[in-house]
Amino acid sequence: MRRHPIFHDATQMLLYLALVFCNIHDLAHIGIQWSALYKVIYYADDSCSLFFAFSECVYLSRTLFLSICVLIFFQSALTINGLIATFFPNVYHNHRKTPGFIMCFIVVLMSLATNFIVITLEDQETPLYSPSCQFFPASAGARANIYLISSIFILVINFLINVGLYLSNKCGRAQIYDISKKYQNLETKYTSKAISLLSLVQLSSLCVYSGGTYIFRTFKDDIPVAYYHNIVIWVYALSYVTASLPLLIIYCIRYVRSHRRKKIKTITNHQETLEFRMGELKNMWTIFARGVFSQLAQCSNSGTPLNSTNCLCPGYTSGKLCEVVKCQRWGIPDQGRCSCPPGWYDKYCGIRGCRPVNEDNMNLEKRSFIIVFNTKTSMKSQLEGLKSAWPWMINSIMTNQNSGVAEYWIENFIFYGFVQGQGALTIVERVFTKSQDVQDFLNTLQLTDGDAEQPILTALKNAQQSIPSMRSHAIVLVFTDSPASDAPALSHRFIDNNIEQHCLQISSLWRSKVSFILNLPDNADFSKDSVDVYRRLASSTHGDLFQIRNAADLENVLKHVIAFYYFPENVHVGYGINGSVTLPTYKDNAGDYVFVLITQDQWGMGDVPVVGDAISWSIGTTFSLYNMMNVNLIKIAPKVYTNYNYRVFIQSKKTVMFAYNDDMNIDFGNSIVVKNISMTSTIRTFGFDNIINNTYQVNDLQNNLLRESYSAKLRPQTDCTVDYYFEAWENTYLCPSGPITQVHNFYLSNVTHQRVTPAYCIDAAHFYPQATNKAKTFFKNTLPYPPKTELNYDLNRDEDTITPLITCDSKNYKVVNDPRLTTSNQFIFILEQHLNNSATYQQLVLDIENIVNLVDTDKNLRKKEFTLIIHDDKVSRVLISTYSPTNFVTFFKTAVQNLPYVANLDNTLGLHSIVQAQKIVLQPTAQIFYFTNQAVKNVQNISRPWDIVDRNVEVNFFTIADGVTTEIFALPKELELVQKMSNGRTIPLGGILGSLYGIFADMVFETALTTDHEKYNCHDLIFNVDAYMERDATNAVVQVVGTGITTIRMFTPDGMIFDHTKYVTYTNGNFASINIDLTKEQKGLWHIGAQTTRGGCQITVRHKTTTGVIMGFANSSFVDVADSQIPLQRTNEANQTLTIPIRVTNQLLTFTANLQIELVNRQRYDMPVFFTNTTVMLRDDVSCAFNLMSARIQVPKQDLTLWTLTGYATNGDVVLRRVFYYYQHIPADSSICNGGQVDALGNCVCSEGHTGEYCWDRFCVNGATLNNHICNCVPGFYGDFCEKELLVPNWNSSTTSSTTSTIQTTTSLTSRISISNSIILLVISLIFLL
């Protein structure tokens, strides 16, 4: 059994137990016979001494009976084993020795118990005699009969069950490749069938023993003595059982091995005819495919189907079908996507690594105006006041008071009305683009009765979380006369996740400026949370708190305070001030207005302080607004002791975005400082040009210094949303819990600008008993990191362990749903700013809406992404990346109409734009449409490792004629390589363009490259190529590129001339695109020819098909993880071999396939040299995501290679054909790896905690989510991998020992599952045995 391990570990343990007790039985039986022989020889003359007293037989009899019990109960255990193997194969396979150990223990325990129940201790003392020790004592006769009857009953039940199991497993062979069964389950069932045969033979013998013994004991007196003693010897069948068991085991082993060999030979023996072999595979995979395509769940949001009802969901999605999107950072849900706060642009607004700035997402010059209005009947006067002041307020707020110029910078108006009354919440929500529409709506607004307290904070939150078109830096006005019914107690522990903290985080991330306009009753208790929460939120967000006493106050606030909130930028703030203050004046330009707003703190008493040497613009009961122009100092003087707030602001578009985080690799952060953690900070400025230096310091709300001033430094990462950072704030535990203020100074050559921004110091998340000022770390060296690269497996496995198809140790579900297998999801336009490209771009403006509609027919599903990048010789900019097709079309037209062009541009940042395009890919795969002028001969090098192109992008180049260059393939060598590596196209444009829609219609869906041939002389003779039209393709696009195309001809597989002219979708003198409807034409091998007036030509064929193909590189046939690029380019080791895993979708795989490798000379693409051709084998699609695998091959050390995968039907027809180009850096370069370490095969060797092809990804623990190389931690954890738990002292705890955080690993989870399943097995075993 050890030499040929066909049996499961649990079965082996039971068989070993049976063999042991077979030997024990035979030894005991031999001992009894020898003792009888001894008495016959020595006591032949004394017949009375020939009998045995039971006291003489105790040990032999009990041993013999114990072995008999074990062998009978062993059959029950073996039956249970077969049941579990048949009906619970997954549980059975995953628990190797556990079921066997449990059942062996129960068998021995039950046998010992039966031994002492049937033969009691009193029976040992009974002075009775018997002719042999193998007989039961007379006093135990009745119990022995009961035992024998029970044994017969148990054995008959076992016999019937095993007959059923045998038939079940025999029938189960027809379902070998059912999707719900893994191949190892098939093996378990088949060996279970063999065990059933073994059990049936054994059970028959045991039934003979039990039944015969019972019959002879019952009818002994009726049987003649001569017959009795002759027959009883043959009836004692235990000897047959013990003797036959080893022979039966050997027979089962040979039987299963023979079956395996036959099956392997049936599938893999090359001596069989191709038709027979393919017929067998077709039958198997037809059954498999029927299960696959009918049973798998339809997952949303890029989820991977696991079975018919469940999906494996990517980060930030949940639900059985991944239908629930969980927007991070208070992004706003929008049809499966998230509208993100500025700086956080991502599919779900998650924490991420550096990404080029999306300028549209960071466009702060378009903002929202939000009104949160409590629609109680008691708010009638406030509503009337709002309606009256609205026209004046909006006209004024749209006007820059410094210049007097009006600007319509409010993109939308959001109204959120609500009232809670009689147990019901009534909500009125509207969004407008024109202020007059708001006025008309307010005139029709109805008020209703409501409760004394209202859910103000919930309304404030929802108003900023329900409209995806909401812009950042919104002005938010909250109108109410009620305390907040949803106000929580003050807490600085944000793990509490209360509504006040939600409002604070939304305001800080969306940078909204919240003003509370309150008309609270005179008896309002300001000490209660329901009222004090307004003051807390206003001070935490640098907002305003207006206490309205009468109608005049309301008019003053709206017409003479809010009306001046034109791009308000704070330069000083102070809250809870109770003395005189003198502040320096900061303004952007000489002559600018400086506004000083004084508001009474809720705790304040007396008059509002005055500002000296200032012009009073508005005086209210609890507030006042002053204006200063040519004054250098601001002097605020209270008349009497009072608490007040001040906010000094200017009207300016020059602003700053400042954020904290605990990891410099994170692109953007937030305004939260977590105490006890070292916090770095980043900053991005808007409108501040020619800054020499910028600094920041931290103050509390009363302007007491908390952290000294630090200067900004240039960030080490490239292409980040935020370019500058500050040194880490180490002693954050000194920060007082609550709101703080950052003071920013920007130093120009002759002036200093200042801004202030809000932030918040929060307490750590969890408590632990012992006091300390440091975070507690639980980073272990044994974190559950799966290996980056798989182990080298023994390729010379024993034939007994070989399966008909190659199986994998674990399935890579990411590959199952690899986006490269489907159509493109992101479309990126890269526009080179060459002056002579303007005519092409104007045509693109005319076509852009139709092009976008082509790929996104349902604009409301938000499934596609659209990006625009421009570049010249100095800068490359991502102008917009959005999931809204309407927004993209509008923005594209405006941006291109205003595009700044450069004359005589001959050296560009084209490569940098391609790198930025790949970094901005949110919805792979992506198609890049790169427009370049042939006059541009050079592209600037970039400080980036050599493998510039990912496999999930396709870069297509539109070359615009310059009137000088005659070679239509005139691309800089760097871009030419990018085009080949990405399977892209080269499309020459020139002369009268006409609509470009036809070209794009032939590009966005027809992406499967099946034919790619070039020739550098197409003018002397016509260039003929073989073109493959795949079986499952619905369309084929033939594109011919050449200088002065004169002839294009096509022949169908039957040799007939094909009239291609009716399928031409776009043509010019140097290019033709022909889209053939293959549902109406023949498929197979076509012949295509082309001729030009001069120079070379290229013929390509691409298909529209649901059959996706991806390739990779691995070091073993049994792993399911592959590199996307050739890893050997990172090592100088010679003569290394790899396997090529391949995934093919929507195929029944009823074909043979081979993979051909050719060497490509980058100077002459038309002369590839054959290198090798290898067979591609099937792999088990159930356990492997890559369902095809090549033999081990030596990959050539060549910079560019051409790989062609071809699949053949049983009749020899080509049914699958794909072409891929792969580039290798020569000489080898390991610098692409994070850490620079590689193994002999070139695989990156990752440091602890990192993984991925290049080791840039992190292993995230404690429930964290990986997004763009960064771990997004759940509250209470931090660190690069979220491996550290943040703990603070719990002074109320009476415990003296520290609590520890247990990091749940895969192993611990599995162990718990093992225990639970072991209990299930134990219960089942007890039921059958009892």
Automatic annotation (TrEMBL):
- GO cellular component terms given for this protein: membrane
The GO terms describing molecular function are:
G protein-coupled receptor activity
| Presence of keyword Transmembrane | yes
- UniProt xrefs under InterPro entries: 7TM_GPCR_serpentine_rcpt_Sra, EGF, HMCN1-like_VWA, Innate_immunity_reg, vWFA_dom_sf
* Ranges annotated as spanning the membrane: 12-32, 64-88, 100-121, 146-169, 190-211, 231-253
Indicate whether Disulfide bond appears among the record's keywords.
Answer: yes
Disulfide cross-links: 1273-1282
Q: Where is the EGF-like domain?
A: 1251-1283
Q: Where in the cell is it found?
A: Membrane; Secreted
Membrane topology per the record? Multi-pass membrane protein
> Which SUPFAM superfamilies has this protein been placed in?
vWA-like (SSF53300)
Record-linked Gene3D superfamilies? Laminin
Q: Name one Pfam family in it.
A: VWA_4
Question: What's an example GO BP annotation here?
Answer: sensory perception of chemical stimulus
Q: Which CDD domains match?
A: EGF_CA
| Key words, A-Z | Disulfide bond, EGF-like domain, Membrane, Secreted, Signal, Transmembrane, Transmembrane helix
Position of the signal peptide: 1-22
Protein's UniProt name: EGF-like domain-containing protein
Organism listed in the record: Caenorhabditis angaria
